[in-house]
Amino acid sequence: MTLHRGRGFASINYPIGMNLGGDPSQALVHSNPDGKFMVALSSIDLGQGMKSVTRQIAAETLGIPVEDVYVDTADSDTGPHCMGSFASRGTHRVGNAVIAAAREARSVMMEAAAQELEVNPDDLVTDGKGNIHVKGAPSKSITTAAACGAAQFKQGRTVSGRGIFLVPLSDVDPDTGEMTPVTCFAHAAMVVDIDVDDETGEVTVIEMNSAYEVGRALNPRLVEQQLIGGAWMGMSHALWETTEPYYPDRIHGPVDFNEYLMPGPGDIAPHHISVLERPAPDGPFGGKGPGEMCANPVLPAVANAVFNAVGVRIDELPITPEKVLRGIAAIGGPQPQPKW
Amino acid sequence: MAKKPIQFQLNGSGQAIFAEEGSNLLDVLRRGVGDLSPKYGCGQGTCGTCTVLVNGEPRLSCLTLAETVEGQSVETTAGLAHGPQLHALQHAFMDNFAAQCGYCTPGMLMAAKALLDRNPSPSREEVVEAISGNICRCTGYEPIINAVLAAAQSGGRRYG
Ligand code: FES
Ligand code: FES
């Protein structure tokens, strides 16, 4: 039995969102009588941080503390329309919709404040702490809560805003097939080190080193969290997971967690991540979306590392011990490739 | 089916309940007592999210006959915090971003608590071993392992 160390590299361009129907998302923002704001969305937070990041975006745009913003993603029947939480589109599409809605709501709030202070709305600024004051004269001020209360109870205004983000659908040129389905790409590059056991065919991931370019990291800890978890999924897809049976007959397919294989806490490898920030011109505050891209570079990098370790080119996932052993047998024994 | 009276301690307070014979502890906790903190994942002992402690030992409540906890002490995530005072593990899970969707979290917390209660300063390997019966789909495990180690470092203190 010999362990063969291998190193594989992969880099990817990852499109944010999709082209279908222009991929729109809407957001609605309104103030409550207590001056706190509600953001209504239909894009669900399934742990990726949709609520946190749209809350930050709304607070920043409205000019109020993040604590004063609630995000409600409760029900896609009653909420504004959204294509959904997938395709790494949430931050980019929904974030832009939230900015548009929050801008509109903010302008009503500023008008309401101006009427109360008897000044021109253009002379007003927010301090981000819950106050609106005259530029250069902080003492001439009103709280955002008082402004929203006045709008609601005295002025008869709704402090609210609507937002939509839509990248116009790009048609396919009938002659060339050319189209521009994507306005925003995220990028990643990864180096994976593995060991291949030439007796058992087992592949062990030793270390991952990666760089992810995600636009501006709007919430750096959430970005990091996504990258770590997503890369684990990539490793899982590369070496373990499949809904297809490992063997030809359908009845050998996995039906529960005993048979649907995934790497456990003992199978993970150190993963060193660099996050590169290149704000996207059309992203909300420059944000793109880590999303699915977290997983993508791991699969080709692992496949390349297997080739580097034993000279076997496997082009069907997952890379199971059986495929590795058959591959090694087919080339008459392991053929380690040049080391780095 | 006949119902059977069961009495046990749940997070330090007495429970008396009639449960159908043969029902599992997870069902009795969730539907009988109304403690929704242990989750139903697979119902067959393979995911770990239903983990509770029985006399301090981690148990898969979906596979535990409710009758067997008669007179025993059961702990769930609902008993971790004392009022507004979160348990060190809960703090550490937040600080280390150890939850995304949160589905595995109750089981992870209880598996980790069982470990720290008997071994206040575990090695990384011991943490891995302690949570190896619990599946997480989201985090890649690393943040969870780090959270448990951080909670141990904080001395397992409660702080609010
Ligand atoms: S629900 Fe008990 S182990 Fe999955
Ligand atoms: S946080 Fe989603 S399963 Fe662990």
From TrEMBL, chain A:
Gene Ontology MF terms: oxidoreductase activity
Entries under SUPFAM superfamilies matching the protein: Molybdenum cofactor-binding domain
Record InterPro entries: AldOxase/xan_DH_MoCoBD2 (IPR046867), AldOxase/xan_DH_Mopterin-bd_sf (IPR037165), N-heterocyclic_Hydroxylase (IPR052516)
Annotated Aldehyde oxidase/xanthine dehydrogenase second molybdopterin binding domain residues: 4-267
Superkingdom, taxonomy of origin: Bacteria
Protein name: Xanthine dehydrogenase family protein molybdopterin-binding subunit
Lineage, highest ranks first: Bacteria, Pseudomonadati, Pseudomonadota, Alphaproteobacteria, Hyphomicrobiales
Automatic annotation (TrEMBL), chain B:
Name assigned to this protein: Ferredoxin
Domain spans labelled 2Fe-2S ferredoxin-type: 4-80
Cited Pfam families: Fer2, Fer2_2
GO molecular function: 2 iron, 2 sulfur cluster binding; metal ion binding; oxidoreductase activity
Domain of life of the organism encoding this protein: Bacteria
UniProt keyword terms in alphabetical order: 2Fe-2S, Iron, Iron-sulfur, Metal-binding, Oxidoreductase
CDD domains found in the cross-reference section: fer2 (cd00207)
Family annotation (PANTHER family): OXIDOREDUCTASE WITH IRON-SULFUR SUBUNIT, XANTHINE DEHYDROGENASE IRON-SULFUR-BINDING SUBUNIT XDHC-RELATED
